[in-house]
Amino acid sequence: MTLELEGITKKIGAQTHIHETNLKLERDAFNILLGATNAGKSTLIRLMAGLDRPTKGEVFFDGERVTELSPQKRNIALVHQFFINYPHLTVYENIASPLRVRKMSRTEIDQRVRDSADLLQLGPMLDRRPQELSGGQQQRTALARAIVKESRAIFLDEPLANLDYKLREELREQLPEILSQRGTVVVYATSDPTEALLIGGNTALVHEGSVAQFGRTADIYRSPANLSSARVFSDPPINLAKIHKTGSKIVLDQHDWQASGDVLALADGQYTIGIRPHHVVPTAPSPPFVRIRDRVDITELSGTSSVAHFSMGKRNWVSLAAGTHPYRVGDMHDFYLLPEKCLYFDSAGILAAVGTDHG
Amino acid sequence: MRPRSLVPIIYIVFLMLPIYWLVAMSFKTTNEILGGFSLFPQDFTLENYRAIFTDPTWYWGYINSIIYVTLNTVISLAAALPAAYAFSRYSFIGDKHLFFWLLTNRMAPAAVFALPFFQLYSSVGLFDTHLAVALAHCLFNIPLAVWILEGFMSSVPKELDETAYVDGYSFPRFFVTIFIPAIKAGVGVAAFFCFMFSWVELLLAKTLTAVEAKPIAATMTRTASSAGYELGLLAAAGVLTIIPGAIVIYFVRNYIAKGFALGRV
After folding, report:
1. Candidates 2.40.50.140, 3.20.20.150, 3.30.43.10, 3.90.226.10; CATH matching A239-354
2. Which residue of B has its CA nearest to A143?
3. How far is B175 from chain A (nearest CA, A)?
4. Tens digit of pLDDT for each residue in B196-253?
């Protein structure tokens, strides 16, 4: 099974929600749609699921054109961010409902419902109603209903966003295992870059209604094709600054460092560097590094990591380090930028070169 | 007894007094009622009730009322369910104005419509039928049912509809087997109010009927008969008129609280 979008555009009134998009999603890998809220992830899913019709373009399942096909006839499954179950039916009947619609035999329904329920650890809850379950169990019920019918594609629209931290981690670890080897295309929308990295698979970065980049999740993270990809795929936000390259020297305000590798080959001129917060650290690493001394504006200590915001000439940079670092808001602190981790974007925002040790 | 429990007791006594008086009267003879003040029936009699259950002009009043009230409730819900769904799920030109206009229908006194209905139904041969009263009551019951149901429907996320479509449900099947059960509290509340308003409405029911479909309220309000004043009998009829409402409200009491929570009752 493959799912293909060809020149998909969605306009509502005069507003363009999705700009012309081409995307080919393969089965048995997680296809992650990563983007900020309102970037168009849900709209893309609705277009793939047939809940909305594209203004232009075509949708193909396995090469078969399904653009005009209603969601009922597409043989797909959908899990929403909110825990959507049929409130008056028991968990068993909820899971069984897509099979009942297909008029499957009673024994086969029973077999399949029990298999899915076991996979999602819902065995003891089968006789309860959704509102008697915890949020995590409700979402498991929705997931069980999605996998029970062996659909051609499963769409998950931020399925973990409304779960609390502990349940989110637990379910996130289990999801790839539950959904793999089913021969279906799995589309998973999330706004959390960490979640995308942890799940792996392929990622389509969605930015302002278009797919900025599509490829293997780890590859995209390492070398985002352009500035908007880099912005979407970084949490906390990536640090950006304009630099000037002359010969082998890179100048950023009063700081400078030596270019090496691909960066050395760049034409002289102005570039934008992007450097992730965990590559601007508060303790001196092994060289090369660039020391920046600045006033700490805000700190966030989480116990396992420390985040410090500093102005860096009104650019609002962020440093992220493991452990708890003794920052004092308002004091001057040293930060060490790792120049070999920098991403260099040209004036059009396209990735021009990466530092020798990026990743 | 603590003084703070006195207030609700006084309030309840105050509320229950007319009902008590009605019930007490229904067990008295007319002579005793007209004779003077008595707190309890001195000469306890079931004769009033026996008269109602044996006289067809009396008990047919109840049957007629129940027929048109049921008919009205069914028609109102059948029309209001799709209408409320449209208001809650789709936006169309003028939807908000139309929705408000529905409510304004309730603001005109029924008397305004008595004459046009009477003339219209007479000319199409609907006069003195159960359907005539049932349809006339739709005038205020459908807007009310739409208003109540829309509130309940809007509290169900639109994602439920979409999930059902993706699961393979056709719209009619989804609506009947998933959606209506999901808002059954709302259907109960709407049915209750349709029942109640139709049950207590007197003017239209009286104007649009003569003999065949004469409602109990019309029978009951003829105070004098050939035998003079039959106050005991009328009181018994009154008691029997309260009972259906009391039964229905018992069944929907929990749902009504939900309706209040949604601000639609």
Report:
1. 2.40.50.140
2. B163
3. 12
4. 899 988 888 888 988 888 888 788 776 556 666 778 888 898 899 889 888 888 888 8
What one-letter code names the amino acid at B14? F
Quick one: tokens of A128? 């309860």
Q: List beta partners, residue A213.
A: A205
Query: Which tokens in the block code for residue B208?
Result: 């649009």
All domains in chain B, ordered by first residue: 55-224+244-261 (1.10.3720.10)
Q: Which CATH number fits domain A2-225: 1.10.275.10, 2.60.120.560, 3.40.50.2000, 3.40.50.300?
A: 3.40.50.300
The domain segmentation of chain A, as residue ranges, is 2-225, 239-354
Between CA B55 and CA B9 the distance in angstroms is 39
Spatial neighbors of A210 by CB under 8 A, at least 6 apart, are A18, A19, A20, A21, A40
- Cα A14 to Cα A11, A55, A66, distances in angstroms: 7, 12, 26
ipTM of the complex: 0.83
| Nearest in space to A336 (alpha carbons), one of A294, A298, A283 | A283
Alpha helices in B168-230 (DSSP H): 171-174, 180-182, 184-200, 203-207, 216-220
Instruction: Please enumerate in sequence order all residues whose Cβ is within 8 A of that of B182, keeping only pairs 6 or more positions apart, or say none.
Output: A86, A87, A88, B156, B160
Over B112-133, what HEC string results?
A: HHHHHHHHHHHHCCCCCCHHHH
Q: How many CB pairs under 8 A join A and B?
A: 53
Residues 267-326 of A with CB under 8 A from B: none
Which residues in chain A show pLDDT less than 70?
A: 358-359
d(CA A190, CA A207): 12
Whether pLDDT at B16 is above 70: yes
CA distance B124 to A326: 90
* Interface membership of B164 toward A (CB under 8 Å): yes
A12 close contact with B: CB closer than 8 A: no
- Is the pLDDT confidence value at B265 over 60? no
